[in-house]
């Protein structure tokens, strides 16, 4: 697939935040709060998919993982610690530079690439993740199609994205950007995907959804899995049998 999926304005916006990516109190603070919940979901799904004991420290040992829209490596690094051989791809070269520097400081060998996913050398991966990315690409159908081509037989794909609802417009776009919880210009509500729309794109790409859950705010824990999908949701999918 050669269709360009990078939106230049989006790449520039997130590239400008690269230096601040690993600061849990900086412009990416919301991602730091989301990441533990995402990781919990990923761990639950990979344990179920590959029948892994939940006590296993390295459930991805011997497996290849691809994180698309990896930013500065906030998810790629934990995947590497779970045992995976990780490749990270991001539209912004600034993010990839920050990711490489941080991984080197942590002693982690992660293969990072800047640019289009389709420009990667031909390869498939056991686990493909893409968190809060599909709403930022120029062509969601082409993007999901390219993700699908990278998923190995028997592999697992996990995505997260905001839902296009009145509540998400009020809280994720208008309120969050107004109070500085996320940088201004981060979200374009019109490009959010409803769950049924994303499931259609996955189906068209030859994938079947095996799980879907809400990602909602929690007064006690910041965010929690389950419950309402009105703001954000996660989806796990595999190749159709």
TrEMBL record:
Keywords: Methyltransferase, S-adenosyl-L-methionine, Transferase, Ubiquinone, Ubiquinone biosynthesis. S-adenosyl-L-methionine binds at residues 38, 69, 90, 131. InterPro entries: SAM-dependent_MTases_sf, UbiG_MeTrfase. Gene3D superfamilies: Vaccinia Virus protein VP39. One of its GO terms (molecular function) is polyprenyldihydroxybenzoate methyltransferase activity. It is an enzyme of class 2 (transferase). One of its GO terms (biological process) is methylation. It catalyses: a 3-(all-trans-polyprenyl)benzene-1,2-diol + S-adenosyl-L-methionine = a 2-methoxy-6-(all-trans-polyprenyl)phenol + S-adenosyl-L-homocysteine + H(+); a 3-demethylubiquinol + S-adenosyl-L-methionine = a ubiquinol + S-adenosyl-L-homocysteine + H(+). Belongs to the methyltransferase superfamily. UbiG/COQ3 family. It holds the Pfam family Methyltransf_23. It comes from the Bacteria. O-methyltransferase that catalyzes the 2 O-methylation steps in the ubiquinone biosynthetic pathway. SUPFAM superfamilies: S-adenosyl-L-methionine-dependent methyltransferases. Its EC number is 2.1.1.222, 2.1.1.64. This is Ubiquinone biosynthesis O-methyltransferase. The lineage of its organism: Bacteria, Pseudomonadati, Pseudomonadota, Alphaproteobacteria, Sphingomonadales. Pathway: Cofactor biosynthesis; ubiquinone biosynthesis. PANTHER family: METHYLTRANSFERASE, UBIQUINONE BIOSYNTHESIS O-METHYLTRANSFERASE, MITOCHONDRIAL.
